[in-house]
Amino acid sequence: xxxxxxxxNFVDLKNLAIDKTKPKQERLKQFIxxxxxxxxxxxxxxxxRIEFTGGRNFSDALTAAFLM
Length: 68
Description:
The protein is of the alpha+beta class.
């Protein structure tokens, strides 16, 4: 179980800068590199757990999440 003291161990999406001029695959690769754990990130003081369903691969699911 993750406690509130663990929140600093996760990357805050508010602090990420994505270069929108790069191709989609490079942006996804950079995102994963920057966040270290694409399934658990934070936005400010809120932890966000990301799950994918529907049989899509990780790249397609993450792209769809970004386009929401």
